[in-house]
Amino acid sequence: MRYSTTQAFALVALRITIGWHFLYEGGVKVLNPHWTAKAYLLDSGGFLKGFFDQMAGNQSLLSLLNSVNAWGLTLIGFSLLVGIYTHYSSLAGMAMLLLYYLSHPAFPGIEYLFPTDGSYFIINKTLIELFALLVILTFPTSRIFGLQRLMIRQRNIDK
Amino acid sequence: MAEDKPENKSGKFSRRDILAGLAALPIAGIVGYGLFRNKADAENRNSSLLDEIKPEIMSGIPPLIEGKIIQIGIIGCGGRGGYLMKALGFVNPDRIDEYTEKGRTDKYWIQYLDDFRAQEGLNIRITAVCDIFDLNAQRAIAAGANVHRNSRSGKMGDAPKRYTTYKELIASPDVDAVIIATPDHWHVPVALEAARNGKHVYCEKPLSWSVSETYEIRKTVKETGIVFQLGHQGRQTESHHVARSLIKQDVIGKISLIEVCTNRNDPNGAWVYDIAPEASEKTIDWKQFIGQAPWHDFSLERFFRWRCWWDYSTGLSGDLFTHEFDALNQILSLGIPHSVMASGGIYFFKDGRTVPDVLNMALEYPERDLTLLYSATLASEKNRGKVIMGHDAYLELGDTLIVNVDPQSTRYKEKLKQGIVEPFKPIYSYVPGQGTVDAITSPTEKYFAGRGLLYTYRDGKAIDTTHLHLREWINCIRAGNDAQPSCNIDQAFQEAMAAHMGTLSYKEGRKTYWDKEKELIV
What is the pLDDT of residue B453? Predict the structure, then answer.
């Protein structure tokens, strides 16, 4: 796929900013031993509330979920930021964002303890970030700007 | 044009490759720097706040002491009696079916039933029940027989025997200990009879209905040496223990004012309970109900809603203030107040009741330099919390515990100046089951702490404090070493006298005082 320089810049900037966001969110959680998704899960709403409440109630599942979430965010963020295996990380990132959205859908009539930073009707920033990752997935840039470029070069040299 | 493939076809990395390949790494470095700064800040704040503080947290459930089966008699098998039986592990099979049915549409009841079935057995048997209303007695017999916690179709065990008078129940050799869940005016007469017969007593709050009987029951419990527990299950609430340890370590500074309240706004909360259609003069032993109360002709209202009349009840002071008082007595060892001034009235429920539905009380503790304020209404649910106000911080207490710093604090002056703590924002929080007291640093944590998410209600693992309170009593009986449980007769005496001082003050429209030497309300 060929992009103009401006197009490439826009796509790389989008990838890096999303990566930054994931990496920081994940890193904060990894570095805080007391962090838990429990409060967030208990605050869930919408048609899957029961499912997320159950996750919060099951201690062993919750600790697994805490690690998967914290490390998942960190690795996805790192991968997007430095541009390596972004195909997998954007898919995984979309899956995580979908779960966040389903636990706190921006449906009218549902209120959360957790504060929101604006007014939303069905579409919120989580959903927008999810679709931004779809753009990253369909318009890859890590071979232009990212570690992937060096890996491919190395492979070519080895051949 | 840029392409998502490396353009360089030569056998080497070009400078361009290296730049484009590695340029994002420094950006990752910036994020990493941000992360470690965040971590270092959090650690700094945590350690500077937590270093000097060593909160005591109860670890787990105390193990059950082994020994022979204890035979229990239930005296008073109405609403509270039924709940106490459930906390002991016995529920009417009809109720199990009812919970299962409700669980089909509301998952809360499935969890409720699971929690009940998971509750540890206490190695006891319900051998006897006594109630003056036939329906209550029959339900209690069915519950007592349900030793396997089954539904109607399941296997049952031996049914407890019904006694029509408490004296016969207490005299039975099949009874080692009794649980008293009668109306207030019957607490002491039943407890006295049990103690004199060497039967251990778990008595619902408040301890007594009149001042004079309070002395008698204290004396008798001490002389006979029975194990006595007053039914303030709040003694088992974890956050109370944590609060006690934080205050002991001077986290909130000198306390001058404590505010507690009762806020209810529904008929049930105002003691307007349903009247069972099965109830009549034929199914209720009315004469026995009256007991030491002044005579009144048969009245279904008075029987089911006895809390609304001074003849059988102790009103807001005895029924609901005592919960608050006992919690604070546990946390601060307040004891009986020096004086109490009460006021209020029947302002909402003009249904013929004699006890007030709005009550305000100021309890003075000049030796401790503090006032305890209680205010209650049965006609508004606006929650005003339980707040202990110190010079350095205030402590809000519920199932969770939150300490908020005061902007004029002396102790936290430097930390306020450095921005380590913020005025009116939480600095410590405790959530049951979490196992740690946290120094609060992140904005999200502050937000949730301020809202006090009710983990205990939502989390399936929550343990019924009434179960723990009964368990403590049973452990003391089995230990047989003169040990008394946490809400023993001395604590109960203080609870009853504080409540009576409030009631007398309200009734007589004057300030009441406690004569410490003579142990008299004057």
Answer: 38
Given a cut of 50, whether residue A142 has pLDDT beyond it is yes
Q: How many residues does chain B have?
A: 522
Residue B4 predicted with pLDDT over 70: no
Q: Do A145 and B17 touch (CB under 8 A)?
A: no
Measure in Å the smallest separation between the Cα of A133 and chain B Cα atoms: 17
B39 neighbourhood in chain A, CB within 8 Å: 31-32
pLDDT at B115 over 90: no
Q: Which two tokens stand for residue B290?
A: 């009256």
Q: Which residue of B35, B436, B455 is in closest CB contact with A31?
A: B35
The verdict on a CB contact (< 8 Å) between A27 and B438 is no
pLDDT confidence bin for B456, thresholds 50/70/90: very low
Identify the weakest region by mean pLDDT among B89-103, B144-158, B459-473.
B459-473
What is the CB-side half-sphere exposure of residue A157 using CA atoms within 13 A?
Answer: 14
Pairwise CA distance, residues A66 & A60, whole Å? 10
Closest CA to B439 of B421, B463, B423: B421
Cα–Cα dist B487/B233, whole Å: 9
User: For B494-511, how does the pLDDT look when each residue is reduced to its tens digit (9 = 90+)?
Assistant: 999 999 999 999 999 999
Give the confidence band of B454 by pLDDT, cuts at 50, 70, 90: very low
Query: Which of B1, B3, B4 to mutate: most A Cβ within 10 Å?
Result: B4
Q: Which two tokens stand for residue B135?
A: 């329906």
H or E element that contains B193: helix B187-196
A1 → closest Cβ in B4, B24, B34: B4
Place of tokens 């006694």: B163
Whether B143 has a pLDDT exceeding 70, the answer reads yes
Q: What number is the average pLDDT over the span A44-67?
A: 88
The predicted structure's pLDDT at residue B122? 96
Question: Residue B117: how many CB atoms within 10 A of its CB?
Answer: 13
Q: Residue B87: CA atoms inside 13 Å, Cβ hemisphere, count?
A: 23
Each residue's pLDDT tens digit, B346-375 = 999 999 999 999 999 999 999 999 999 999
Asked whether the predicted pLDDT for residue B45 surpasses 70, the reply is no
Query: What's the rounded Cα separation, in Å, for the pair B225 and B472?
Result: 17
Q: Quick: pLDDT tens for B116-133.
A: 998 899 999 999 999 999
Neighbours of B177 (CB within 10 A): 21
ipTM: 0.89
* B444/B464 Cα distance (integer angstroms): 29
Burial pattern B247-278, b for ≥16 Cβ within 10 A else e, equals: beeebbbebeebbbbbbbeeeeebbbbeebee
Q: For each of the domains in chain B, give its residue range(s) and CATH number, in order of start.
A: 70-236+466-488 (3.40.50.720), 240-460+504-508 (3.30.360.10)
Contact B2 A31 (CB under 8 A): no
8 Å CB contact of B448 and A7: no
Instruction: Chain A: give the shortest CA distance to residue B6, in Å.
Output: 6
pLDDT of B406 strictly over 70: yes
Would the CB atoms of A143 and B6 count as touching at under 8 Å?
yes
Is omega for the bond preceding B426 within 30 degrees of 0, making it cis?
A: no
Query: Touching check for A63 and chain B: CB below 8 Å?
Result: no
Q: Kindly identify which residue of chain B lies nearest to residue A151, measuring between CA atoms.
A: B21
Provide DSSP, B69-123: PEEEEEE--SHHHHHHHHHHT---HHHHHHHHHHHTT-HHHHHHHHHHHHSPP-S
